[in-house]
Amino acid sequence: MGQMAETVTLTTAQAIVRYLANQWIEIDGVETRICGGGFGIFGHGNVTCLGEALYNHQADLPLYRGQNEQGMGFAAAAYAKAYLRRRFMFCTASAGPGTANLLTSAALAHANRLPMLLLCGDAFLTRLPDPVLQQLEHFGNPTFGVNDAFKAVSRFWDRITHPAQVIQSLPAALATMLDPADCGPAFIGLPQDVQGWTYDYPVSFFDKRVHRIRRQTPDHDEVADAVALLKNAKRPMIIAGGGVQYSGAVAELTAFAEATGIPVVETIAGRANLVHDHPLNIGPIGVTGSDSANTIAQEADVIVAVGTRLQDFTTGSWTAFAHDAKLIGLNAARHDAAKHMSATVVGDAKLGLGALQAALVSYRAPADWTARAQAQRATWNDYVAENTRVGNGPASYAQAIGEVNRLCHPRDRIVAAAGGLPAEVTANWKTLDIGTVDVEFGFSCMGYEIAGGWGARIAQSQTEPERDTIVFTGDGSYLLMNSDIYSSVLTEKKMIVMVLDNGGFAVINKLQNNTGNESFNNLIADTPTATAQVGVDFEAHARSMGAAAETVSSPAELEAAFGRAQASDKTYVIVMKVDPYEGWTTQGHAWWEVGTPHVTTSDKVRDAHVDQESSRHKQRNGV
């Protein structure tokens, strides 16, 4: 008979933590723990057992205490972005509302294809004490609860019903988070009693394991089909998405574009694939893009979409391209590669671009096409220079962005999210170095900005501690979620936070007005139930959480204030009012489909509906 495997008796929670502490990844030849630690708020659903296990692994898996579970999830997502999906953080929350608060951040991670491990309290498996505090009761299905809601926003979902189950569940969750095609959040529900139950685990389960991200070689025939399309292209274009960076394929993208002369446009997630002055960088594409990128997109006959999921802000709700343009989808995910009847090249972007370049050794895009694209970009650069110029009209997002862009270090990391700022940053920011821009627009999630900045700063402090993390947020997002300013002060993870106050949800007010509607319930001044018009002292509020802060009266004062923020040794908040009506970037917009009323008593709304529908003929129908 064979010798029995050596075992160790551990609780379920202890086994989970010990396993995570022994998972490593090789990044550029250096081994590091794949889990950078976690974010946790304890409650009765996770403090006694999981908390006990984490206490004994503080050196291996540092635990950051958040102020809000949703913010913890945003921070974990930003951390994963900063590490190009090669490392992740876990989030732990108690059963009930603590766990429910993570739903939004799980959805954000799912939309953006980001790894995040959620270790959440769950109802007692035995049901002996049911119904417990914060437990939802479904009379016809006692197994159904809040945690089942995560099935819609997780790439991997499991509930641990026996301690032995983690031997299968944890590797499966990790494999999902490391898979370039299926990457996303993994949810593991931990019933409160099961967390403390014991099992004799094989010692070998906890051996150190070094992981590597899989690189799938594209199929030879798919590459050949794509090459055949490109060889006949007269007006080719590359759309570079966030997947280019996750693949580590920036050098290959640059080499492919330079070898072929094919113009490159960027998605929001791919906003820092090329520096702004690269001669083949024609600008950001789509609804919040540039005239230069959108002009050539409408004329391109073959479009290579690399590492992008082609969401509607990229495609202009599928009006950005000619009806007869041919698409080539190079993507690790088959689902994304095959969109709109694309010729698929399913595989790693780094390997796929290399294969395309090798097969196109004698091909070069027509010189007049490349020159036309570059001329369009030069015109756009002139527009951005004037749009961001201090003194060009009332104080605006664009002016603040331009000043920070001029004053920051090339390796500083920029974080923005929902509202008007993603469009303004995407259109006006001049990328100074590769991989330095995080505009969260996959889920367009208010509240990501400050929490995400904290998570990004935790990652940045491990790789480039001398550089700054710069957050752009509006007053609306600030009021929704600001408490991680306090988190950053507690953990000494300094951020520079630009709070640009336009008196409410001004970008939605702009959409409301642009569709013929009257201003209603977006700006504080136009909220009927806001009978007292009271401004918020954002500077005092930030100071109350331990940050340094100041208010400037105009963009002209930003240079001195930003210098003080750079010199500060703790989080520094700069507040400035911007005009809610004027100063918006008016150029560079592709059509965007929004639902408008087909019947109305308002002439303005009816006229706006007719104007909106007048562009629908440009919309591709999926082929």
From TrEMBL:
Pfam families: TPP_enzyme_C (PF02775), TPP_enzyme_M (PF00205), TPP_enzyme_N (PF02776). Keywords: Hydrolase, Thiamine pyrophosphate, Transferase. Residues 440-575 form the Thiamine pyrophosphate enzyme TPP-binding domain. The keyword ATP-binding does not apply. Its EC number is 3.7.1.22. Residues 223-356 form the Thiamine pyrophosphate enzyme central domain. Residues 604-616 have a biased composition (Basic and acidic residues). One of its GO terms (cellular component) is acetolactate synthase complex. Residues 39-134 form the Thiamine pyrophosphate enzyme N-terminal TPP-binding domain. It is an enzyme of class 3 (hydrolase). PROSITE patterns: TPP_ENZYMES. InterPro entries: DHS-like_NAD/FAD-binding_dom, Myo_inos_IolD, THDP-binding, Thiamin_PyroP_enz_cen_dom, Thiamin_PyroP_enz_TPP-bd_dom, TPP-bd_CS, TPP_enz, TPP_enzyme_TPP-bd. One of its GO terms (molecular function) is acetolactate synthase activity. Residues 604-623 are annotated as: Disordered. The keyword Transferase applies. One of its GO terms (biological process) is isoleucine biosynthetic process. Belongs to the TPP enzyme family. This is 3D-(3,5/4)-trihydroxycyclohexane-1,2-dione acylhydrolase (Decyclizing). It comes from Yoonia algicola. The gene is iolD.
